[in-house]
Amino acid sequence: EPEVTQTPSHQVTQMGQEVILRCVPISNHLYFYWYRQILGQKVEFLVSFYNNEISEKSEIFDDQFSVERPDGSNFTLKIRSTKLEDSAMYFCASSAFVTVIQETQYFGPGTRLLVL
Amino acid sequence: AQTVTQSQPEMSVQEAETVTLSCTYDTSESNYYLFWYKQPPSRQMILVIRQEAYKQQNATENRFSVNFQKAAKSFSLKISDSQLGDTAMYFCAYGGATNKLIFGTGTLLAVQP
Question: How many angstroms separate the CA of residue A22 from the nearest CA in chain B?
């Protein structure tokens, strides 16, 4: 069964460093998402991406964040200058399409980011 | 704005018993989906079941079923014949006209042997 994959599974970085989190969505899916989950808290939406552009972003997704689909398979989240509060689990998700309402999103296993 | 509320932070159930997890939501939209995701200790998010709001029939997936009460904006998850592998955090989520899922705060379910 097709699944969303994410690399790396864990990343430790120093405050102020740039990190890139990578995702390979399910191959025939058209919509891609990033969510984050701070330890012990609920999952929060960051950004959605369709047709090579951001379709929606949350207040969390400020100028230090960016997303890109550099080729036909990868979808990346870049954090330019990490802060301690960026420590979280980052989930990538994809869905086949969005009609009038939300289609099912399938999640990857997550990347655990720790900022020191 | 849409909200999702899970009022049970933790629950416990004996193996082979049945347990129901509660979820309520608030929305002004008429068309939407509701989901239950499971997050085991590995922290991966696994889809358990989904319900389309326009369908009156409650969704079922093997031992998992929902009680969807649209007028009351309630969406509970019933797990029958609980197994040790069901131990996890369970999140209720709403998906509507926007592209994002809105999650509740989760219910930590412990299945006791």
Answer: 16
